[in-house]
Amino acid sequence: MSNETTTDALSLDHVNILTNDLAACRHFYVDVLHFKEGFRPDFDFPGLWIYLGHSPVLHFIHTDKSQPKNSGAIDHVAFRATNFGAVAKRLKDNGIEFEHKSVPGMELQQIFCYDPHGIKIEFNFHGK
């Protein structure tokens, strides 16, 4: 066995989230955070795809099965972001509580909030 580690994986493609409320997810990610809703294949079940650029990074699938109100074993989902002030204002304007942190020794500001399912979302703002 070699100590060299290789993988054929290139990057994270998307995160899939089961939801009982597509409308709440659409409101949070599209209306509040200004992510873009985009093309989703015509599957035989309801869902929603949220894009960053040309990539659908968040997939939501509607389910009638009850879902836990947290992110389970995964602590959070993080995004690089710009315009700290605008993001903080949109969260405030929509009554969404968030926490602001500065990373010691780095020019990095962070915002932490929770989506409608209690999944912790992190935004990283690099620079001053």
Overview of this protein structure:
The protein is an alpha/beta fold and 128 residues long. It contains two helices and eight strands, in the order E-H-E-E-E-E-H-E-E-E. The protein has a four-stranded mixed β-sheet with strand order 1-4-3-2, covered by helices on one side. Strands 5-8-7-6 form a four-stranded mixed β-sheet, with helices on one face. Strand 3 and strand 4 form a beta hairpin. The longest helix has 11 residues.
Main attributes?
single chain; 128 residues; alpha/beta; 4-stranded mixed beta sheet; 2 helices; globular
Give the structure's gist in a few sentences.
The chain has 128 residues and is α/β, with parallel strands linked by helices. The chain has helices spanning 22-32, 84-93; strands at residues 15-19, 36-37, 47-52, 55-62, 77-81, 98-102, 108-114, 120-126. The strands form two sheets. A four-stranded mixed sheet has the order 1-4-3-2, with helices on one face.
